[in-house]
TrEMBL record:
Metabolic or biological pathway: Porphyrin-containing compound metabolism
Membrane topology qualifier: Multi-pass membrane protein
Location of the protein in the cell: Membrane
GO biological process entries: heme biosynthetic process
InterPro entries tied to this protein: COX15/CtaA_fam, COX15/CtaA_HemeA_synthase
Pfam families: COX15-CtaA
Name of the molecule in the record: COX15/CtaA family protein
GO cellular component, one term: membrane
Domain of life assignment: Archaea
Molecular function as annotated in GO: metal ion binding; oxidoreductase activity
Residue stretches spanning the membrane: 21-44, 64-86, 98-125, 131-151, 163-182, 194-214, 235-257, 263-282
Keyword field: Cell membrane, Disulfide bond, Heme biosynthesis, Iron, Membrane, Metal-binding, Oxidoreductase, Transmembrane, Transmembrane helix
Annotated source species: Halorubrum rubrum
Amino acid sequence: MSLRPAWLTFRRYAAATTGMTLTLFALGVYTAATGSGLACQAQWPLCSDQLIPAMTINPDFIEWFHRVWAMVTGFLIIGVAGWSWIGSFDRQTRLATTLAVAILPVQIAVGAITVTIGGLVPGGYTVSTHAAHLIVALCIFTLLGLATMWGGERAGSARLLRLALGVAIAGVLASAVFSRAVPFLTYSPGAQGAFYVAGLSAHLGLVATLVAATDAIDGGVSGLAPSAARTVRRLAAGAMAALVVTLLLGRDLVLYTTTWQRVNLVTLALAFALAAGAAWVLRGSDAAAERSTAIGGD
């Protein structure tokens, strides 16, 4: 007899963990943007010589809360990997969850280095450590998204592919509203967090598009020709690459001059154009399928 409630499936647990990781991403950005990452006097895992700081909204608490959320999320990620090995899941699902756990210590170590400055690691608060922290977090987030999509029945359809592309396009547009490339809003700590929530949602939509398009090529998605699926996959991959560049430029990894702002704007526009192009190809494939059905019915 299983003690697990019937509603708690692997896919739901993995999806919740992916959501926790997305929130952690936004919390980390907000913590860094407010300067709270430096508030604990260059200590880790302690915060200003305390295990638990004063429970008031101040820089110490923000950094401490970020660490606690990261710890809880880390245990959830380990749980996803454990479940994938205990349950009857395919090799790629187990590989994705195992890789997420394997690189988790790297993320923890880089995070610790980032906030120690002249403490444990001199010069820890640098562009290189910020970049590494962001890239490793994105890898973990992507692996969890893949595990969620692979860890269950994969009754793919053109409708699900359209939904994934819709999430990607909406996410890119929403991220543009908060992006530092578009002078629409002040790029405040809150706006930065919102930018990454939107951008990562778009990224997840593109990951889902790649998975669904690959299934279509392998004959697992009805209503979509393999040739159209290949084009959709190429366009989605290009949109993802451009979006990752905008996510990197969203942090202070370069001296953000007018030139870099233009580069950021171009990559953001490119991500949208490629995702929209994939949606257009899918729409054309749907129209062709409808014409074929109509002709066959005459």
